Amino acid sequence: RNFYYITILRDPVSRYLSEWRHVQRGATWKASLHICDGRSPTTEELPSCYTGDDWSGCSLQEFMDCPYNLANNRQVRMLSDLSLVGCYNLSVMPEEQRNKVLLDSAKENLKRMAFFGLTEFQRKTQYLFEKTFNMNFISPFTQYNSTRASSVEIDKQTQQRIEALNFLDMELYDYAKDLFLQRYQYMRQKEHQEARRKRQEQRKILRAKQAHLREQGENSSSTDYIGNVERW
Predict the structure, then answer these.
(1) Is residue 169 within 8 Å of 73, Cβ to Cβ?
(2) Within a domain: residue 232?
(3) 120 is in which domain, residue-wise?
(4) Is residue 91 in a domain?
(5) DSSP letters of 111-160?
(6) Contact of 14 with 150, CB cutoff 8 Å
(7) Would you give per-residue pLDDT tens digits along the chain (232 residues)?
(8) Left if phi > 0, otherwise alpha if psi is -120 to 50, otherwise beta: which for 26?
(9) In this structure, is residue 34 part of a structural domain?
(10) pTM of the model
(11) The dihedral formed by the CA atoms of 206, 207, 211 and 217, expressed in degrees to the nearest 10
(12) Could you tell me if residue 228 is inside a domain?
């Protein structure tokens, strides 16, 4: 069996707002063990943002203010190899170095995946998946522009704050979008080349058939003429 890693990335600001709304409704990740290098992080390495059973009802400001919030740069963290930076132990290396290692690791792992898509490009994502794995979905993907994240109205200052909290995800998404569109264009060119090759083969076969028919017609005419001469 062949196993392939695939993922779907999302615009970091929309993804962050969506997670906030999810948490606000009572979602938690208590079942997630965050195991890295064979162990889970200690409470000192990964403090909780809230007390009690969940963080339901938290405001966006409270969500942004928690320095331990795993929503920050989640896509980079989940795509990177955390063992390279000592897992959740922030004292292993300086923050600037840690960020660079995480971002480079996330980019490399994304590039090596057999397939990844972007939430903001549903049709292109479907096209790439189908061409990559030679499979077809029953119905076309639908681009939903109305989401829980899009229903949240934020001012420019709040958006800039979210972008700053997710600056690694912002850079990763720019890289991912560029790579995604490159792969899409490559597949489209490949498809056009294959279609052109098939048309050329069909024209070649058609010309061969026409030549064969002409040859048969010429032979038939010669045979008829010789037969008439013999009768005359």
Answers:
(1) yes
(2) no
(3) 6-191
(4) yes
(5) HHSSEEEETT-HHHHHHHHHHHHT---SS--------TTTT----HHHHH
(6) yes
(7) 888 999 999 999 999 999 999 999 999 988 899 999 999 999 999 999 999 999 999 999 999 999 999 999 999 999 999 999 999 999 999 999 999 999 999 999 999 999 999 999 999 999 999 999 999 999 999 888 767 666 788 999 999 999 999 999 999 999 999 999 999 999 999 999 988 888 888 888 888 888 878 877 767 666 665 565 565 5
(8) left
(9) yes
(10) 0.84
(11) 50
(12) no
| Residue 146 identity (one-letter amino acid) | S
Contact 85, 98 (CB under 8 A): yes
Tally of domains within the chain: 1
- Spatial distance between the Cα atoms of 178 and 175, rounded to a whole number of angstroms: 5
What six digits make up the tokens of 90?
Answer: 């922030």
The residue whose two tokens read 């990763």 is 172
6's enclosing H/E stretch is strand 6-9
Q: Are 80 and 102 in contact (CB under 8 A)?
A: yes
